[in-house]
Write a structure and sequence with these properties.
By secondary structure, the chain is mostly helical. The chain has one domain. Helix content is 85%, strand content 0%. Helix 5 runs antiparallel to helix 6, helix 5 runs parallel beside helix 8 and helix 6 packs antiparallel against helix 8.
């Protein structure tokens, strides 16, 4: 009996790779899914961090140009057809409508109905642009939320399955010594650890990105309101 226990203890590899290789096929599949989900989450996290930093930096530069007191038409020409940040794209969408109206001479007329229609189109264009920009910035956050809520339960499923297999092994061997029980329990708990390792960063990143994106959406809404106010003032002053 002692030799059997020593053999069982000596053959038990409790390293991460050893636990994976010794695990049941179902538990292995759970582990692989959790590792893949964790890798994908970290890829989204790093990509989102870089994109948000780049967006904030470019938006700050654009705001400096916008509030510098220069011509809006010159700024629109500088930003080009494809601006490099969300705030500039909101600005460009409004300026396109403004220039179309200017080409037809609407901005120089005193017809209140025409001006109200123009302002409505400009505000609607900016609102649609903000919606599209936020949808692009929010891409991937849904996956983080899903992994954050589902991964612990997937890991728990692997743990339960592994413990069931351990109990079956104990029943078949009729040996309840720690040397026999420990490897199976360790394999099962490893699945839970992987589930938490995937869920915790995903939940933390999702909460952080949600707060940052909410601030960004507010910033774009405020900018669109301020820009619309500037255009109203120009209309009141008789055009550009």
């Amino acid at each position: 009996m002692e030799e059997a226990l020593i053999t069982a203890s000596g053959s038990s590899d409790l390293t991460i790779m050893g636990l994976f290789l010794a695990a049941d096929p179902v538990v292995k599949l759970v582990m692989l899914l959790l590792v893949a989900a964790s890798v994908w989450c970290w890829a989204i996290i790093f990509d989102k961090i870089m994109r948000l930093r780049r967006e904030k930096k470019r938006a700050a530069l654009f705001e400096d140009q916008f509030w510098s007191g220069g011509s809006l038409d010159d700024l629109y020409d500088q930003t080009g057809a494809e601006p490099d940040n969300a705030q500039a794209r909101v600005f460009a969408s409004a300026m396109r409508e403004w220039r179309r109206a200017s080409a037809r001479g609407i901005t120089s007329r005193l017809d209140g109905e025409l001006r109200a229609s123009l302002l409505s189109r400009i505000e609607r264009s900016m609102g649609l642009t903000i919606t599209r920009e936020m949808e692009k910035m929010e891409s991937g956050t849904g996956f983080l939320a899903s992994i954050g809520s589902v991964a612990p339960f997937v890991g728990l499923f692997g743990t339960v399955w592994g413990i069931m297999n351990s109990f079956q092994s104990i029943a078949e061997s009729k040996n309840t010594s720690l040397a026999v029980v420990a490897p199976g329990i360790a394999e099962a708990l490893f699945a839970t650890a992987l589930g938490l390792a995937a869920a915790i960063p995903a939940v933390t990143a999702y909460n952080k990105f949600s707060a940052d994106l909410e601030k960004m959406a507010t910033r774009l809404e405020v900018f669109s309101t301020e820009f619309a106010t500037l255009l109203v003032r120009q209309l009141d002053e008789g055009g550009r």
